[in-house]
Design goal:
By secondary structure, this protein is of the alpha/beta class. The protein has one domain (2-185): Pyruvate-ferredoxin Oxidoreductase, domain 3, CATH 3.40.920. 41% of the residues lie in helices and 23% in strands. It is built from eight helices and six strands; from the N terminus they run E-H-E-E-E-H-E-H-H-E-H-H-H-H. It has a six-stranded mixed beta sheet with strand order 2-3-1-4-5-6, with helices on both faces. Strand 2 and strand 3 form a beta hairpin. Helix 1 (14-27) crosses helix 7 (162-172) and helix 6 (144-154) crosses helix 8 (175-185). The protein is globular. 41% of the residues are buried.
């Protein structure tokens, strides 16, 4: 059984990343269950997607301390959901912070650096990805989800290859985005 928690902010492509993980698992005949908690995603709110891969799952949800992979599109969301990651689990985290609505309304500042420092102290298997640099290199901010998904696959935390995810992506997204997404999956 592999437990995966994807977290971030609405509009970052979390649901598509979740669907590609589920689709790739199904293509490999790996049983999969998934559920999203979208909340106020359209207003920049938190989004989570829970996935369980393997036999014996009766629910997509899983208890705290049992996620094998925490795939975080935003560092503050990574810290917030960190209690779900198991002791030796892997966390793949985008280093670019998105200021929460409450902080922007109050005039507070938020860079995410404190969150990254917190994660470095507490996560043994931490993979930090400069999502901004990757998206600039790829020429599109819409590539972030594929960059992070590719990093998660390359880490070995998922039971498939980048080529297998790419194959599912190519039948799941519009043709105009396929080549960009394919390059983003392989970005290192």
């Amino acid at each position: 059984m592999t437990n995966i928690l994807i977290t971030g902010v609405g509009g970052q492509g979390i649901v598509l990343a979740s669907k590609l993980i589920a689709g790739t698992a199904m293509k490999k005949n790996i049983p999969v269950m998934s559920a999203e908690t979208i909340g106020m995603a359209q207003k920049g709110g938190s989004v989570q997607s829970y996935l369980r891969l393997g036999k014996g799952a009766y629910s997509a949800m899983f208890p705290r301390g049992s996620a094998d992979l925490l795939l975080a599109f935003e560092p503050g969301e990574a810290v917030r959901m960190l209690p779900w990651l198991k002791k030796n689990g892997t966390a793949v985290v985008n280093t670019h912070a998105i200021m929460p609505t409450t902080a922007s309304l109050s005039g507070a500042s938020y860079s995410g650096e404190e969150m990254i420092a917190y994660l470095k102290e507490r996560v043994e298997n931490l993979i930090l990805v400069d999502g901004d640099a990757a998206c600039r290199a790829l020429g599109s901010p819409r590539a972030l989800n594929m960059v992070l998904l590719g990093a998660a696959v390359s880490s070995g935390a998922l039971p498939f290859t980048v080529d297998e995810v790419d194959e599912v992506m190519r039948v799941s997204v519009r043709e105009a985005f396929r080549d960009l997404n394919s390059r983003a999956l392989r970005y290192q």
